[in-house]
């Protein structure tokens, strides 16, 4: 059975792994995202190894 941690223990483990986290973002601080089309980028040719293989 997996070990169960208390909220306080989980908070300590998060702090130990990530350090101090930034303050929580409030709903009033959120920004709406607008999707845009991808620009027409040149297509790169795939690199092919010659018959002798890698040098």
Overall shape: it is flat
Helix-strand topology string: H
Largest sheet: none
Stretches where pLDDT falls below 50 for ≥5 residues?
Answer: none
What's the N-to-C terminus distance? Answer: 52 Å
State the total count of DSSP E strands.
Answer: 0
Discrete helix count? 1
Average of per-residue pLDDT values: 84
Report the helical percentage. Answer: 10-25%
Protein traits:
55 residues, mainly alpha, 0% strand
Describe it.
The chain is mostly helical and 55 residues long. It is 22% helix and 0% strand. The protein contains one helix and no strands. The chain has one helix at residues 7-18.
Gist of the model:
Helix content is 22%, strand content 0%. It is built from one helix and no strands. The chain starts with 6 loop residues before the first helix and ends in a 37-residue tail after the last helix.
Which helices and strands occur, and which strands form pairs?
Blueprint: H1 7-18
């Amino acid at each position: 059975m997996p070990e169960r941690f208390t909220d306080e223990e989980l908070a300590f483990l998060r702090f130990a792994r990530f350090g101090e986290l930034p303050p929580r973002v409030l709903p009033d601080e959120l920004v709406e995202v607008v999707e845009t089309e991808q620009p027409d980028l040149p297509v790169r040719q795939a690199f092919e190894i010659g018959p002798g293989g890698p040098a």
